TrEMBL record:
<dbReference type="InterPro" id="IPR003307">
    <property type="entry name" value="W2_domain"/>
</dbReference>
<feature type="region of interest" description="Disordered">
    <location>
        <begin position="14"/>
        <end position="36"/>
    </location>
</feature>
<feature type="region of interest" description="Disordered">
    <location>
        <begin position="128"/>
        <end position="148"/>
    </location>
</feature>
<dbReference type="InterPro" id="IPR051956">
    <property type="entry name" value="eIF2B_epsilon"/>
</dbReference>
<dbReference type="GO" id="GO:0005851">
    <property type="term" value="C:eukaryotic translation initiation factor 2B complex"/>
</dbReference>
<protein>
    <recommendedName>
        <fullName>W2 domain-containing protein</fullName>
    </recommendedName>
</protein>
<feature type="compositionally biased region" description="Low complexity">
    <location>
        <begin position="22"/>
        <end position="33"/>
    </location>
</feature>
<feature type="domain" description="W2">
    <location>
        <begin position="1"/>
        <end position="136"/>
    </location>
</feature>
<dbReference type="GO" id="GO:0003743">
    <property type="term" value="F:translation initiation factor activity"/>
</dbReference>
<dbReference type="GO" id="GO:0031369">
    <property type="term" value="F:translation initiation factor binding"/>
</dbReference>
<dbReference type="Pfam" id="PF02020">
    <property type="entry name" value="W2"/>
</dbReference>
<dbReference type="GO" id="GO:0005085">
    <property type="term" value="F:guanyl-nucleotide exchange factor activity"/>
</dbReference>
<dbReference type="InterPro" id="IPR016024">
    <property type="entry name" value="ARM-type_fold"/>
</dbReference>
Amino acid sequence: MLIPYIIEKAKQATSDDTFNEGDSNNSGSSTNGNDHERDVLSKYRAVFQAFLEDKPNLQLILLYSLQSFWYGLGCPKGMLLRWFSFLYDFEIVEDDVFLKWKEDINDEYPGKGQALFQVNKWFEWLEKDEEEEEEEEDEDDGSDSGTK
């Protein structure tokens, strides 16, 4: 899959020690080589988007593949959080797909419990952001109805 290849390229750009480090409260900002990870994923952004745009089932498979790969590496702290943030920031995976992954129970892919623990605060942020967007849309819809 493309994720292991991209992560391997990110590892080559930095040392293995800095690759696995990261603050679990970090939502993808730059620390300890995270810029290298972001830059490498950025190179493949168009490829991901071409294959995954408007294909939520494939986006979900991508998240599960990332989860499995992360689990196979021994669940490095902060890595899954960074990659979820990157996939969100680069608009590769849709909000609804992240939420589906969170709620979906699938024993085929190991490490879901550990993964949820790693990205729980990020999901709290995502859900809050979704609620705020819905409220703004409701307000916009309400103001339009008075002008017609």
